[in-house]
Amino acid sequence: MSPRVTIKTVAQAAGVSPSTVSNAYNKPDQLSAALRERILSTAQELGYAGPDASARALRSGKAGSVGVLFTDKLAYAFSDPYAVGFLAGLAEVAEEFATSLLLMPLSSTDIQGGTNAVQQAAIDAAAIFCVAGGHPALETLKNRGIPMVSTDRGDHPDLSWVAIDEVEAAAKLGAHLARLGHREVVVLVDNAEAAGTQPVELSLDEVGYTDCELRIRGLQKEMPDARIRLVSGGHNAFSSGLIAAEWVLDSQDRPTAIVGLSDVQALGAMEAMRTRGLVPGRDLSVVGFDDIPAAQTAGLTTIRQPIRDKGRAVGRVLLDPAATERQITMPTELVVRSSSGPAPR
Amino acid sequence: MSPRVTIKTVAQAAGVSPSTVSNAYNKPDQLSAALRERILSTAQELGYAGPDASARALRSGKAGSVGVLFTDKLAYAFSDPYAVGFLAGLAEVAEEFATSLLLMPLSSTDIQGGTNAVQQAAIDAAAIFCVAGGHPALETLKNRGIPMVSTDRGDHPDLSWVAIDEVEAAAKLGAHLARLGHREVVVLVDNAEAAGTQPVELSLDEVGYTDCELRIRGLQKEMPDARIRLVSGGHNAFSSGLIAAEWVLDSQDRPTAIVGLSDVQALGAMEAMRTRGLVPGRDLSVVGFDDIPAAQTAGLTTIRQPIRDKGRAVGRVLLDPAATERQITMPTELVVRSSSGPAPR
DNA sequence: ACGTTTTTCTAGAACGATTTAGAAGAACGA
DNA sequence: TCGTTCTTCTAAATCGTTCTAGAAAAACGT
C-alpha cells in the first residue's frame, strides 16, 4: 500500500529538486548529462514510469491528442470504408506528430450534465466528421474553446474545413443520369430516425445532414425535370441501403435510377437488385458517392473523392503549425462504371 | 485577453464556494435544486463550458478513456477490416460506458524520452491489439500501472486476454489442407522489416508476432509431412500479400497451397493468381484467416473468428466492473469455400 | 423546548506535474 | 584579480479540479 511514485519521490531519492527531475524528462539540455543519467536510473529503480499524463496536461495545457467526432454511433463509423479511409489519413498525420486520436462517442442523452464524453475528453483540437451543423456536441466543443476542423463547409467564415463542393459533385452525378435519360429517381439517404423501422420517405427539410441536403440540391440542379424521391432505411450502412432499396423495388412505383448518397448504401441497393434478378445498369441504374474500394469491384458508378487525402489534410490543419490554409476544397471526379446505363423506356 | 473562466470564476460570480460549483456539476444531490439551477445559469452566462478535463482527470484519477494499441503503424490498422471490426465491437461497449477510445501510435523511435504517445496518453486502461509480447510499449504501460487486455494469450497468468486458440484454429486449416493432399505450402506472414523491399523468406524464429508463430505451429501439427515455407511481403496488408504471392508464383519452386495468416494477405494472393490466369482452388489453393466480409465475396476458404464479439468482450473486460472473467477464449470455425481444392499431382 | 439527525454549504488541502525567476558555482576575458 | 557570462540547479507559485472534514442551518422526534 505504498503511496504512488511521483516526481517528488524520485527527486528525493536522487537528492535533487523536483524541477530537475522534470527537466531530466523534458529538457535534457538544462542539466548535465551525468545527472540526467543518474536521475533516470533512480527513476527506473523506483519504478517511476515518467511524468503523469493528466498532471502534465493540466499544467502545460497540452493534452497530446485530438478528438474525432463522428455522425451517429461510433460503431457505425467503422462500417463505412469511407469513414475508415478518412481515419487512416488522419492517423497518418497524427502519427507524424506523435499525437493520439481520441474517438469520442456522442451520446444523445446527457447533453447537459458533465458525464458526456465530449465534455470529459482531454483534447487539444477536434476533427468533425460529417456531423450536422447544429449538433449540440459542436456547441459544447466551441464553448470549451477547442479548435475544430470540419469535413463539411460551415457557414461561419472563421470555421476551418476540408471539404468537397458537395453541390458540384452531386451535379456531376445528376448530369450523368440526366444524359442517360433518367427522370424517375430515388435517393437513398441517411436518417437516424428511420433506423430499426420500415423505410420512410422524406421531404427535403427532413434530411438532417447538411451535406446530404447539398448533394440532393446538386442532383436537382442538373435534373430539373426529374421526379426525385428521398427514401431512408436508417443509418448510413450497407443494410440500410439494402432495406430501403428492397422497399423501393417491391413498391408499385419503381424509379429508373437509385442514387445512394454513399457507396455503402448504393452497394446495398445493388444487392437488393441482385436478389431480385435485376441487373444494375440495364434494368435499373444505381450510382453511389465516395468511391470506396468495393465500388470498383462491384462496378458501381460513383463520385470519387480523395478520402484519405481528406483525412491527411484535416490532420495537417489540426496539427501542423505550418499549415496556413484553413479552408480547403478537395477535388471530385465522376467515375462511370457498369452500374449505370440508359433509362429503359 | 481575459483570464480563463474557471470553476472559481463561476463561484465568485454566483456567490458560492468553488466546491459547490463542482458539486453542481458532479453531485446534483449535494445541493438544492434552486442553487444548482442558479449556478448552471451563471456558468452559462460566463461562457464556462464545464470542469476542465485535464484537471478533473488529475484530481479524480479517471481519464474517461481507454487506449488502443495496434501493431505497426496506426494507418495500417485501418487497412485491415479485421482490425476495423474489432474496433467497432470495442467502440460499441465504449459508447455504452461513455468512454472515449484513444488510438495511440507507437512510434518506434523515442522509446526512452517522454514525447512518446504511449507515455503521454491519459488513459484508464488499454486494449492491446495483436502487439507482440515483448514490445517496449507494453513495458511502458505496465510500468505506468495501466490495466491491459490483450487479444493474444499472454504467458503471465495474471494477464487479461480475449483470444482464440491460435494453434487449434490453424490446425483446422492444416487438417483441411492435408486432407486435400497438399505437401508444398507457403505461409504469408506479417513482417515489418520486409516492408518496402523484396519479399523475404523467413525462419520460424524470425517471425515476430507470437500469434503468427502459433498459427504456423498449428499448421505444422496437422501437416507433419509438408514442406512449409514462410514468406513476407511486408506489413499485414493486401499489397503485401500480393507482392509476396507474386514473388512466390514467379519463382521456380511453386507450392500447391498458399496460406495467408490474415484474409487481407490471402486476398492479395488471390489477386496475384488472377493476374496470372490461375484459378484459386484448382491450380493452387489459397486459404486465409479471420473471415472478413470480403472473404465471402471472394470465395476464400478461411478460419472464422468472431471479431466484433472479440472487440466487445475486450471492452467488457476493460470497462465493465461486473465482468469477472479475465481470460476468455473465443470460438473459431473452418469455413470452406471455393479457393481451396485438392492438390494437383 | 431541546438534543439529534438531516440537509446544505464551505475551507483548505491535495492531485502531480511545469514554469518562472533567480541563486550558486564554473569558466572566461582582459 | 575582478567583473561578466554561462551553465547547472532550485524554491515556490501555479494549473483547475475534487475531496475530506466539518460548520451552519433546517427539520425532526419526543
From TrEMBL, chains A, B:
Highest taxon in the source lineage: Bacteria
List each copy of the HTH lacI-type domain by range: 5-60
Q: Which InterPro entries match?
A: HTH_LacI, LacI/GalR-like_sensor, Lambda_DNA-bd_dom_sf, Peripla_BP_I
Residue intervals passing through the bilayer = none
Which keywords does the record carry? DNA-binding, Transcription, Transcription regulation
Task: Supply the name of the protein.
Answer: Substrate-binding domain-containing protein
**To which species is this protein native?**
Kribbella sancticallisti
Q: What is the lineage of its organism?
A: Bacteria, Bacillati, Actinomycetota, Actinomycetes, Propionibacteriales
